[in-house]
Amino acid sequence: MASYVILAACSLFLSFSDCARPAQPATDALATAATRAVTASQSAPKPPASPLQMGADQFEKYLPQLRGKRVGLVVNQTSRTGPSHLVDTLVAQGITVKAIFSPEHGFRGEAADGATIKDGKDQRSGLPVRSLYGATKKPTPDMLADLDVLVFDIQDVGTRFYTYISTLHYVMEAAAEQGKTVLVLDRPNPNGRFVDGPVMEPKHKSFVGMHPIPILHGLTVGELAQMINGEKWLAGERQCALTVVPVAGYTHATPYVLPVRPSPNLPTAHSITLYPSICLFEGTDVSVGRGTEAPFEFIGAPTQPRTRPFKFTPRPTSGSPTPPQNGKECYGLDLRQLPTAQSEGLTLRYLIDFYQQSTAKDKFFGKYFEQLTGTATLRQQIIEGRSEKEIRKSWEPALGQYKQMRKKYLLYAEK
Length: 415
Hints:
alpha/beta, disordered N terminus, Rossmann fold, three-stranded mixed beta sheet
């Protein structure tokens, strides 16, 4: 009797129409794949020439584990092997793909942040698309009943509040509970050189922060999966059967520009670099540029001084149909020309400055702020006028302890 598998996949900056190329119709896909298996060589396709080889491109390391299995794919627009989508590649290799599992932003990566993703059917492949960002964020027993392995291959950006790693957690948890195997096809962390920020306090756990890790965790998805398993962070302190296919040729110091955008509002490499610092404004009255041509590169609010050097007005877009401060003129900064050396890592200088300059300090912070920061103290420290240097000192010893724990799970050299 055939066994079945689940895969989660992602990559980065091509157009969405190019990125999301699922497999051929489901009912015909297996028959076509079987025909190919008879008429063509069963050898894996050649990976694209590159100084780095993604986990998904190292076919010889994981295709043997998928043959004869029932496979589900947790994928989106970034799940690519060279010019092809992972779904196409696996079906062409005769792998029995049974279902697609969709994280936040949907299978094609076009849904707005926070938008509910519904179950459906992929028109090209005919495969069922099962949402992990709608009625449930964790695969149910019924979703996994006809599957054997969960394969996860989603491109992350290296921050605690980017929700693909929360989907990873729930996929691993469901696998542990249902006796399934998880296979992670690893990809680089574009912010992987940095380990910084307050470590999340348990009382602030949410879908935008599920683990006691800092804002910049300095791990790839594969390394984080090992940490989740090793530290027994899954419900009931369970551990799942886990295999990671590492990126070949990668170190944490390797520069990496994503070839496909990971989500609608991170359209550029520079926005991804700024994201760890600018995303904290999502818990305030300051717009981060959603509804403009440069999300996470514009920051401003109606409550900032009109003397600020830049102004913009958010308007509805496909990636942000109801942007914060919609239709209101916002005064702030344009960070698009900020040198990379000044935009990397995590800084509080913008957050502190915008609070100090706010004309409505009592309305500056929102309830969401603690979910993003992972701590109740940062808000109070900023209100009290603490310097960034003073605030950083308060992140110890928790940050130092995390750095020591992180060493146990590294798959790649630091330099």
